[in-house]
Amino acid sequence: MIYLDNAATTMIKPLAVSRAVMKAMQTMASPGRGGHEPAMRAAKTVFDCRMEAAELFHVPSPEQIVFTMNATHGLNIAIHSLARKGTRVLVSGYEHNSVTRPLAALGAEIHVAQAPLFDSAAMLAAFEKQLPGMQLAVCTHVSNVFGYILPIYDIARLCREQGVPLIVDASQSAGVLEVDYERLGAAFIAMPGHKGLFGPQGTGILICAQPGSPLLSGGSGSDSIPQTMPDYLPDRLEAGTHNVCGIAGLREGIRYVRQSGLDSIYAHENTLLQAMVSELSGVEGLTLYSDHCRNQSGVLSLRSARLNCEEMAALLGERGVCVRAGLHCSPYAHRTAGTLDSGTVRFSFSPFNSLEDVTRSCQFIKDLL
């Protein structure tokens, strides 16, 4: 099997991740629910994971690290904390449904900063022009469809200058690119645990600059008498029993990222991206969505004039190449890039992919065409 669907989930993970999950299942109870050894062991594991994440993302206090089920969960908390019906919200033209659907459900007034694919100067100009008068901005760091790295730090600077709170979707950048909380100055930064951080599915992180509004209410393991959620983090946003087993695995995934180094991870994925672009450039009837591998993470979308995207993905799957086809839950991005009618076939890399994976996949594509 050649697994190239890492933008959805990094299925191939460091061995320490699965070992930690199994150990937690066998030895840990629930943090904050007892003073006995299994509960205290769980509490230490959860706190250690907060510390690892706080250090990776330059967050001053580990209490600002809130555990979620996934990035969608975190984005919903952030959006419900800052948006209401009629709130004027500026988003990029590359947002995931995890951003746009919650905004639409609230009845927010959504404005789109449109810019051509891979054109960061135009994106920045669009934000600069449209930010005045906005009450909130939400922006992805990296497009999950095209790997386009948006100029998030410049966008964050514009938001600070205009006094507009910013929510950052770091779903495709966390664990690959620098996500610096202090430099961004964002109100919230949401990310999954199961992608670039190599945690299990069902894990995520929301970095909070403010307490936020809980989506769920219930047990917090603290302040049991008041019938409202605590007013302090992380307890305010973590109702119910923690996913201790998932968090134990996530801790090991974050440790792997820190030990490997973001620069090394990005360089490896970019090398694979360049190799695939080089192998497939000039193939008749094949359109590659690439910026000569600049402003682009380890994600490549393509489409063929001879095979529709779903058919190509299915045929590759029969040959053991795992990719994703369609709209990738991001109609905004496809509308911006002009691929809404067809979708794309997406190849996405991780540190556990090799140049041989790329070479074999490219040969399969050429054979199919």
Strand content: 5-15%
Q: What is the percent of helical residues?
A: 40-55%
CA-based shape: globular
Number of domains: 2
CATH fourth-tier homologous superfamily of the largest domain:
Type I PLP-dependent aspartate aminotransferase-like (Major domain)
**CATH domain class of the largest domain:** Alpha Beta
Structure classification: alpha/beta
Low-pLDDT segments? none
Spatial order of the strands forming the largest sheet: 2-8-7-6-5-3-4
Helix tally equals 12
**What would the average pLDDT be, to the nearest integer?**
96
CATH architectural arrangement of the largest domain: 3-Layer(aba) Sandwich
Word description of this protein:
With 369 residues, this protein is α/β, with parallel strands linked by helices. The chain folds into 2 domains: 2-11 and 262-368, Aspartate Aminotransferase, domain 1, CATH 3.90.1150.10; 15-260, 3-Layer(aba) Sandwich (Aspartate Aminotransferase, domain 2). Helix content is 40%, strand content 15%. It has helices spanning 15-27, 37-56, 71-82, 97-106, 120-130, 152-162, 181-184, 244-260, 262-280, 309-318, 331-337, 355-368, and strands at 2-3, 65-68, 88-92, 109-113, 136-140, 166-169, 188-192, 204-208, 286-289, 299-304, 321-322, 324-326, 344-348. The chain has a 7-stranded mixed β-sheet with strand order 2-8-7-6-5-3-4, sandwiched between helices. It has a 4-stranded antiparallel β-sheet with strand order 9-10-13-12, with helices on one face. Helix 2 runs parallel beside helix 8 and helix 3 (71-82) packs parallel to helix 4 (97-106). It is globular, with a radius of gyration of 21 Å.
